[in-house]
Amino acid sequence: FDYPNEKEFTVAACSPSGQAVAVGSFNRIRTYTWAPRKMTWEETPPKEIQNLYTVTALAWKRDGSRVACGSLCGSVELFESVIKRTVWKNKFELTYVGASQVLVKP
Fold first, then answer.
1. Can you tell me the distance from the alpha carbon of 8 to that of 25, in angstroms, rounded to the nearest whole number?
2. Is 98 exposed, middle or buried (0-12, 13-18, 19+ CB in 10 A)?
3. Nearest 5 degrees, angle CA 88-CA 67-CA 52?
4. Which DSSP string do the residues of 30-89 spell out, in sequence order?
5. Span 59-98, pLDDT tens digits
6. Rounded to an integer, what distance in angstroms lies between the CA atom of residue 76 and that of residue 106?
7. What letters, b where the CB count within 10 A reaches 16 and e where it falls short, cover 18-49?
8. In terms of Cα–Cα distance, which of 43, 49, 10 is closest to 27?
9. Which terminal residue of the chain, N or C, has fewer Cβ atoms less than 10 Å from its own Cβ?
10. For the segment 30-60, what is each residue's pLDDT rounded down to a tens digit?
11. CA distances from 74 to 23, 26, 28, 52, 71 (A)
């Protein structure tokens, strides 16, 4: 990955499963996910937030379903990190948060 026209990365946080890494910089959050079949990290489209300024803190929820982002100006943004969400037999909500991680809620 090469970003010669962008500001430096300021903070990074690994997901609880180790299958994703969120990286913060100026007005932007990038997420990289591990692709086990290819044995490489893949970049998802970056999330650009105008006037966010420098990202100073990133933290994942323990189950890997959300990422909290703090900025230099004191704002806090919360993002869902969900691949897919379905309902099974009208009883359980299945939330896929990683290639091998599923959250089950009644």
1. 6
2. buried
3. 135
4. EEEEEETTTTEEEEPPPEE-TT--BEEEEEE-TTSSEEEEEETTS-EEEEE--SEEEEET
5. 999 989 999 999 999 999 999 988 888 999 999 999 988 7
6. 29
7. ebbbbbbbbbbbbbbbbeeeeeeeeeeeebeb
8. 49
9. C
10. 999 999 899 999 999 999 999 999 999 999 9
11. 18, 14, 15, 9, 5
The per-residue pLDDT for 46 is 94
Strand arrangement, sheet containing 76-80: 55-60, 66-71, 76-80
Block residue for tokens 């996910």? 33
**How many CB atoms lie under 10 A from the CB of residue 56?**
14
| Distance from C-alpha of 2 to C-alpha of 49, rounded to nearest angstrom | 20
